[in-house]
User: Which sequence fits this backbone?
């Protein structure tokens, strides 16, 4: 979707899939999308200047999210993936209202689906930012799929800083993970969650520390792969897949220091991000 000066909307399969996150965390979703749809071009925006979204009010997050979406729409995207749990939890309606012709995919619904599929006993733990937990979006999404589920939520704001810092395993990460997670799994009667959904794009990096604290039995899921599935099926439904045989490329926009985006983004993506693919933008 691209809106020209005369307010005419252009949308075609040659446009990239647009994605945004408050920072580099959404690159965990980008990675899953590239694995599933290697032919798609992706335009990714990391609003690093205003990270974190997770501790801000829903009104502020909605305003930032609409501005980020707008920057991507101005450049032309055929679909928008809100690769940020906090923005998905509080701002999807605002984004859809601002861009009525645009197909918008959030990560909460796919994450809830992954959690319900993983859980046998119906007791599901959700860890996310303060904003995502306070808004209750995961609770509602899980209950829509599995009305009998018992959901235990925990805000883990320090996980975001640990992931950004690269402290994803070892004693400090494990101590923080234990402090957040142990109360969720403290029912001595055996009524403990059998699955944990990582409801924040930063948290998959912390999986080594989380796994050490929880042990091997608890299933740990996130929304990256299920979100990629949703994007795939919508692109097919709208006949918007990239030309077969094309190799997709990714281009990155950041609202703050490019070098830092390259450095931390490389860690989240698990491979190098070329400096010339990253552009500094103001929203
Ligand atoms: N990207 C955010 C999320 O998935 C985490 C970082 C932040 O608080 O902005 O909720």
Assistant:
């Amino acid at each position: 979707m691209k809106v020209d000066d005369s307010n005419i909307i252009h949308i075609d399969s040659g446009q990239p899939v647009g994605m945004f996150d408050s920072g580099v965390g959404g690159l965990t979703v980008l990675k899953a999308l590239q694995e599933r749809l290697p032919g798609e071009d992706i335009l990714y925006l990391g609003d690093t200047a205003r990270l974190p979204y997770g501790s801000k009010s829903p009104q502020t997050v909605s305003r930032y999210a609409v501005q980020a979406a707008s920057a991507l729409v101005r450049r032309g995207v055929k679909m928008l993936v809100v690769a940020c749990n906090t923005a998905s939890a509080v701002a999807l309606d605002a984004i859809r209202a601002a861009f009525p012709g645009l197909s918008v995919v959030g990560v909460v619904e796919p994450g809830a689906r992954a959690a319900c599929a993983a859980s046998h006993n119906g007791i599901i733990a959700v860890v996310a930012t303060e904003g995502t937990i306070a808004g209750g979006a995961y609770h509602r999404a899980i209950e829509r799929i599995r009305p009998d589920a018992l959901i235990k939520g925990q805000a883990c704001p320090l996980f975001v800083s640990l992931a950004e810092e690269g402290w994803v395993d070892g004693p400090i990460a494990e101590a923080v993970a234990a402090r957040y997670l142990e109360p969720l799994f403290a029912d001595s009667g055996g009524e403990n969650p059998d699955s944990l959904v990582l409801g924040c794009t930063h948290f998959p990096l912390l999986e080594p520390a989380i796994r050490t604290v929880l042990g091997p039995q608890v299933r740990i899921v996130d929304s990256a792969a299920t979100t990629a599935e949703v994007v795939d099926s919508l692109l097919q439904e709208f006949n918007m897949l990239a030309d077969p045989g094309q190799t997709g490329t990714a281009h990155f926009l950041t609202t703050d220091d490019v070098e830092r985006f390259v450095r931390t983004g490389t860690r989240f993506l698990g491979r190098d991000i070329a400096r010339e693919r990253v552009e500094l933008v103001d929203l």
